[in-house]
Amino acid sequence: MPSSPPRRTTTRRSPRAAAATSSAVRRTAPLPPPPGRPLTAPFAAVFGLLVAAEDLYLGWLLWAGLPEGWGRYLAVSAAGALLAVTGAVLVWRGRGRGWLVLAVAAALPLLLLLGVAALFGALGDDSSVGWALLLLVGPVGCLALAVRRPIREWTRPGRATPPPPSAARDRGNGRAR
To answer: What average pLDDT does the chain have?
Structure first.
């Protein structure tokens, strides 16, 4: 048996605080979003404009094939296009709930085009099914981008930046201090 003395280990105390554990990190407040526009916001706005163009195109298809008195369908198509443009502008500018407007504007033509594709698929018209599925690119892309976290945080209602301080407050009130 070796006759070495038992070693004593001392715990070193650091003046700095210990690093937070992973469970403590999760309990803290979420990090604030970056101050600028997210990279996906312009793409979401462009897809919103594509949805508006597709809404107008579907309205034009209805107008070309319907008899007189069916103008209400054109009004629904124009209202959907207006909703999509409004959502695109709201997302671009970062206004509150813009993502929700854009998501609703994309979901309506998405459901319509899926119904058209199913109807023409049941009737056996493969060409029309292909065109309906091709037109799904706009609503699917718009919906996929509009519901992502960076866009939702960018269009959060309480995200508004504070107004810049007025010039009179910066200069003081003219009295010497």
So the answer is: 80
Q: How far apart are CA 156 and CA 36, in angstroms?
A: 13
**What is the pLDDT at residue 21?**
62
DSSP per-residue codes, the chain:
---PPPPP--PPPPSSPPPPPHHHHHHSPPPPPPSS--THHHHHHHHHHHHHHHHHHHHHHHHHH--TT-HHHHHHHHHHHHHHHHHHHHHHHT-TTHHHHHHHHHHHHHHHHHHHHHHHHHHT-HHHHHHHHHTTHHHHHHHHHHTSHHHHHHT-GGGPPPPPPPHHHHH-SS---
Q: Token pair of 139, please?
A: 């609503």
**CA proximity to 38, closest of 162, 157, 174, 149:** 149
- Top pLDDT among 85 and 37 is at 85
Phi, psi torsion values for 132, nearest 5 degrees: -65, -40
CB 135 within 8 A of CB 106: no
Q: What angle do CA 174, 175, 177 make, to 5 degrees?
A: 130
pLDDT 10s digits, 52-64: 999 999 888 877 7
Question: In this predicted model, what pLDDT tens digit does every residue of 102-143 receive, in sequence order?
Answer: 999 999 999 999 999 999 899 988 888 888 899 999 999 999
